[in-house]
Amino acid sequence: MNTLNNECCPDEQLGAKPANIKWSVVRGDTATLLIQFLENDETTNYNIDGWTFIATAYDKKSEVFTDLDVELVGTDVKIIATPAVTETWGTGVKDTVAELSFDLQVTTLDNTVWTPVIGTITVIGDVTGVPIS
After folding, report:
1. Is residue 50 part of a domain?
2. Boundaries of domain holding 34
């Protein structure tokens, strides 16, 4: 993934087209997505010290924005949707009960704002605990 034009990597391009991720989540479960920022050699981790990250999901039907948890794991970023959040996504027990948009936004040390990841969360209905008739 192309990243930012900064002191450590002057060859990189700011505003590179975001990665478009399709993320499947079972309603009511914990869901995590691990994002790695890599140099052009695709093996060397980018230095993301001091960057801040925000992840948000958006349900077009209900027009509700939901903040997702973001954790730094070494030089990787983990986006987490907790059960308390995912249990509110969609209704019914169909294969797909909701589709939400999401993104990951970065603010770098020089206050550059960049969105490297966008995508769709497909929410799968959970049948555990549904009464059997």
Report:
1. yes
2. 20-124
The structure's pTM equals: 0.83
**Tokens representing 96?**
């797909």
With beta carbons less than 8 A apart as the criterion, state whether 123 and 90 touch: yes
Q: pLDDT tens for residues 93-115?
A: 889 999 999 999 999 999 999 99
CA–CA separation, 81 vs 57, rounded Å? Answer: 9
| Domain annotation covers residue 5 | no
The distance of Cα 63 from the centroid of its chain, to the nearest Å, equals 18
Q: Is 100 helix (H, G, I), strand (E, B) or coil?
A: strand
In this structure, what DSSP letter does residue 108 have? -
- 115 belongs to a structural domain: yes
Q: Domain count of the chain?
A: 1
**How are strands ordered across the β-sheet holding 76-81?**
19-26, 113-124, 98-107, 52-59, 64-73, 76-81, 31-36
